[in-house]
Amino acid sequence: GTHIRSCSDEAFLHHSALQKRVSCIARKHGLDVNNDVLNLVSHATQERLRDLVEKLATIAEHRIEIYKM
Amino acid sequence: SVQTSMGVQDTKVLDKRRLQELVKEVDPMEQLDDDVEEVLMHIADDFIENVVSAACKIAKHRKSNTLEVKDVQMHLERNWNIYVPGYGSDELRP
User: Fold this and answer.
1) What is the pLDDT of residues B25-38, one digit of tens each?
2) Residue A23 lies in a domain
3) Number of folded domains in chain A?
4) Cβ of A21 and B52 within 8 Å?
5) Which of B9, B32, B56, B79 to mutate to test the interface with A (most CBs of A within 10 A)?
6) Euclidean distance between CA atoms A45 and B82, whole angstroms
7) With an 8 Å Cβ cutoff, are B18 and A12 in contact?
8) By the CB < 8 Å criterion, does B39 face chain A?
9) Of the candidates B42, B16, B46, B43, which has an alpha carbon nearest to the alpha carbon of residue B31?
10) Which of A42, B4, B21, B75 has its CA 20 to 30 A from that of B44?
11) A48: which chain B residues are within 8 Å (Cβ-Cβ)?
């Protein structure tokens, strides 16, 4: 059947580790962090890696094609 | 994660299990070498650093004391062409 994924899936990044990382950067700029920022950064990182992995999969496939000839 | 050091960089934000799940979503037949996994973990770290730092500059520019979703969205959309749905970003659209 069709598998539907929604954004309420398990967070991609570890919440507490990400919170530490983000607030450390924000503190250098003298800023507090809105909590929703963490979720957004987690989803965006997932998208960034998904895009890379898709490209890597295509490149790897291509490499095998060349090898066959 | 590493407990012995207080360094922020030592705390893993991404574990390999989640990364492997992502790869299986893209292509169930795909296998990642260990060193490729390492590189992807690094890329994730760099990405977070880049996005959050740039978003902080945007927040400062609008003279805010708080880093908000819209600051992160603006950087993601303009510099990375990444649109995450569900955050009500209509006000950023031309």
Assistant:
1) 999 988 889 999 99
2) yes
3) 1
4) yes
5) B56
6) 10
7) yes
8) no
9) B16
10) B4
11) 43-44, 47, 80, 82
Map out the domains of chain B as residue ranges: 13-92
CA distance to partner chain B, nearest, from residue A1 (Å): 15
Residue pLDDT, tens place only, B46-88: 999 999 999 999 999 999 999 999 999 999 999 999 998 887 6
Residue A61's domain comprises 15-68
- How far apart CA B33 and CA A66 sit, in angstroms, is 20
Whole-complex ipTM? 0.83
Judged by CB atoms closer than 8 Å, whether chains meet at B27 and A57 is answered as yes
Q: How far is A13 from chain B (nearest CA, A)?
A: 5
**pLDDT recorded at residue B30:** 86
May I ask the CATH architecture of the domain B13-92? Orthogonal Bundle (1.10)
Residue A27 is assigned to a structural domain of this protein = yes
Q: Is residue A63 part of a domain?
A: yes
Angle at B79 between CA B77 and CA B84, to 5 degrees: 30
Smallest CA–CA separation between B14 and chain A, in Å? 5
pTM for the full predicted model: 0.82
CA-wise closest residue to B58 among A44, A11, A37: A37
